[in-house]
Amino acid sequence: MAFPPPAFPDIAKASNDIEGKYVDASSGMHNFLCRMTSTSSSERRLVFVAQRSHILTTSRHPGITLTQGWTTSNILNSKFELDNQIAKGLKAELATDFTPSSKDFAAKVNLHFKQPNFHARAFFDLMKGPTANIDAVLGREGFLVGAEAGYDVQKAAITRYSAAVGYAVPQYSAAITATSNLSVFSAAYYQKVNSEVEAGAKATWDSKGSNNVGLEVASKYRLDPTSFAKAKVNDRGIASLAYNVLLRSGVTAGVGVSLDTQKLNESAHKVGTHFEFSG
Q1: How far apart are alpha carbons 146 and 190 in whole angstroms?
Q2: Burial 47-72 (b: 16+ CB within 10 A, else e)
Q3: Dihedral of the CA atoms 70, 27, 199, 184 (nearest 10)?
Q4: Is there a cis peptide before residue 130, judged by omega within 30 degrees of 0?
């Protein structure tokens, strides 16, 4: 049975996750995330993300979802979703943001279309431009090819474009991407060595920047069913270590450290933490 391929940003997801998720103390390891969710058809959630909170009310019917929220930044969020209502495999979203204090209003239409061997997305910002960002991926027997483009309706111009090819199976994957108008190239590789060990590597070259090639090598070791450790080193001598553990059902904690091995005697090192509550 054929399945939809990943979305365009996820063609190299396995490699990106092992090299970035929970292992970079300078960015992803300092967040406090809290989620409390009920399973009823009409639900209320209190969400804290990087010290911002939302009070959400969600109403669901088969294939139809309406979500409304009010943030601590005094922004009213609304999202209306139609899943498999217009066409099979198509999910349509209308998302709006309204700021009463400034009367600012934002509206976006998002489309997600999945079919066997095909995955396409389109994002339209109705109030800015309007602008459109579209990507699509074709997949067959593990091989992937995809592209994305941005278009400004007011300027009648393509604002950006990217392309990627890849190959993915459960045990390993490889991808080559060209982003920033085909000026930044990267090659990524991921392998699941066994049930405990995963490894990944990535090389990046900016054709409009320096001639240097950025290199990253990372690995993940699962210590037991509830915890794992990660290690990463790059060509600049930055070494990162991270530890993540499931404390109890719905409670995850992590700690990470980033060391500049070329400046061990200087204050160039970073330490971060990560907490996540879900339920």
Answers
A1: 19
A2: bbeeeeebebebeeeeeebebbbebe
A3: 100
A4: yes
3-state secondary structure 15-51: HHHHHHCCCCCCCCCCCEEEEECCCCCEEEEEEEECC
Question: What does the pLDDT average to over 260-266?
Answer: 82
Quick one: 184 exposed, middle or buried, by C-beta within 10 A (0-12, 13-18, 19+)? middle
What is the structure's pLDDT at 220? 95
In this prediction, what percent of the chain has a pLDDT beyond 70? 85
Q: Name the 3-class secondary structure at 195.
A: coil
How far, in Å, are 144, 189, 229 from residue 140 at the CA level?
A: 7, 19, 34
CA dist 17 and 23 (Å) reads 9
Give the residue from 203, 247, 243 showing the smallest Cα distance to 223.
243
SS3 9: helix
- Bridge-partner residues for 252, per DSSP? 246, 276
What is this structure's pTM?
0.78
Which residues on adjacent β-strands are paired with residue 276? 33, 252
Q: What's the CA gap between 84 and 70, in Å, rounded?
A: 28
Dihedral over Cα of 56, 53, 81, 12: its sign? negative
Phi and psi torsions of 2, nearest 5°: -85, 140
